[in-house]
Amino acid sequence: MQTAVHIAHVGDDFERDAAVRELEAGKVVIFGGGTGNPFFTTDTAAALRAAQMGAGVLLKATKVDGVFSADPVRDPGAERFSRLSYREVLRRRLQVMDLTAITLCMERRIPIRVFNMHVPGNLAAALRGGDVGTLVTE
Questions:
Q1: Is the dihedral of CA 16, 17, 20, 25 positive or negative?
Q2: Domain assignment of residue 73, yes or no
Q3: Fewer CB within 10 Å, N side or C side of the chain?
Q4: CATH number of the domain where residue 60 is located
């Protein structure tokens, strides 16, 4: 566990090189504490860490099954997208992640996989590169 802000007995302070060593040793690294700065969301923190680590994909586990044309809880007729471009997300102002996070992923060409974390097997499928939820990419 690495954190953006010092939290004694919870995790080590974020250090990219240490995280890389842990990953190369086959370990899982969990990043916490956001960015350590005000005004930045956890979405932006996830995109920032994905960029810093050279991630091949950013997995966004949510309570809905991907990205929709509208809030599917409020609008049962909302359309679920299986694939979108970053620019389409920005143009339509879809509520995938905040604009800073989407833009950072777009600039660094980091695909975003948005999926329902409450469906058994979805996380494992997403980790294996399975076609769950919505893929946001170029």
A1: negative
A2: yes
A3: C
A4: 3.40.1160.10
Query: Would you say residue 14 lies in a domain?
Result: no
Number of domains into which the chain is organized: 1
User: What is the C-alpha to C-alpha distance for residues 113 and 115, in angstroms, rounded to an integer?
Assistant: 6
Flag whether 27 is in a domain. Answer: no
List the chain pLDDT tens, one digit each, 138 residues.
999 999 988 999 999 999 999 999 999 999 988 888 888 999 999 999 999 999 999 999 999 999 999 999 899 999 999 999 999 999 999 989 999 999 999 999 999 999 999 999 999 999 999 999 999 999
